Amino acid sequence: MADVAEEAGVSHQTVSRVLNDHPNVRGETRTRVLEAIDKLGYRRNLVARALVTRHSRTLGVVSFDTTLYGPASTVYGIEQAARAAGYFISIVSLKSIDRSGMRDALDYLADQGVDGIVVVAPQWTASQALSDLRLDLPMVAVEGGEADGLSVVCVDQVEGGRLATEHLLALGHETVWHVRGPSDWLEAEGRVSGWRAALERKGRDAPKPLLGDWSPRSGYEAGRSLAAITDVTAVFVANDQMALGVLRAFTELGVTVPEQVSVVGFDDIPESEFFSPPLTTIRQDFGAVGRHSIEVLLRQIEGTDELQRLVVPPSLISRASAARR
């Protein structure tokens, strides 16, 4: 900074004001300082800054299975929101979530001096682990169930299941079958609850759900089972990847979509509009989840201790895979 000050012909304090976007710096002076910074290749020493301010400007993120669209998109949304707020992200991705693994991840991030932590907790085991573990750091859970003692930001999965099911019922289908996600995932349980509630509200029977594991392969197997049931006319699939498998199975077995069976997915992955036929699905706003997560966490870092639960609404994206009965 002393070299920059000498090059620009200003004081050390003026350079500091420019770097911290202080309003009381003339435009000409600011330009001269920035040009000096570029010329000298100046880079901030973030470690030194953290020692002075006691803030690292780094946030920790704990996530699980970022190969799946939902968790990966959630982490991306968090990273984008953090960068917009002037923070860096340090990510720990766990292959499986249990109390020991969660503790190790939280301790690792705390040792790095992060200012706060966002935990993407899509499973019951993660939610339970969070309820048992505490760090003296601001923390927010994404999804996370109830996550006692923590702020939570989540998509309304129950509402998403309800939207999908009511859309199919409104098209004249007598009932809606469901290919669900794994039983230990909070999102899967929420979508099942919304599906079942929508059927009960209309006085319709709820067929036994078929179990999937989020993969196209499990959707394919479920699709083969559904094709063998003669009265199936509508299927709500708990994610788009499994819906892709269902569509493939129907095509192979001569079941036409949507003429014979209507299909609705969940997530609105980028490829869903290019499925054959283009997939009607439920969109999750991962950008909003990321923004709200960072906003809540930064309020905690700034000293607001009030716990919050922010629920992001999903939306129905209507395409060609669902039609009137």
Automatic annotation (TrEMBL):
Q: The organism sits in which domain of life? A: Bacteria
Q: Where is the HTH lacI-type domain positioned along the sequence?
A: 1-53
Checking SUPFAM superfamilies in the record gives: lambda repressor-like DNA-binding domains, Periplasmic binding protein-like I
Region entry Disordered, spans: 1-21
Enumerate the InterPro entries for this protein.
HTH_LacI (IPR000843), LacI/GalR-like_sensor (IPR046335), Lambda_DNA-bd_dom_sf (IPR010982), Peripla_BP_I (IPR028082)
Q: Which Gene3D superfamilies match?
A: 3.40.50.2300, lambda repressor-like DNA-binding domains (1.10.260.40)
Q: Which UniProt keywords apply?
A: DNA-binding, Transcription, Transcription regulation
In this record, what's one Pfam family? Answer: Peripla_BP_3
Show the stretches that span the lipid bilayer: none
One annotated GO molecular function: DNA binding
Question: Which PROSITE patterns does the record match to this protein?
Answer: HTH_LACI_1, HTH_LACI_2
The name on file for this protein is LacI family DNA-binding transcriptional regulator
Q: Which organism is it from?
A: Nonomuraea mangrovi
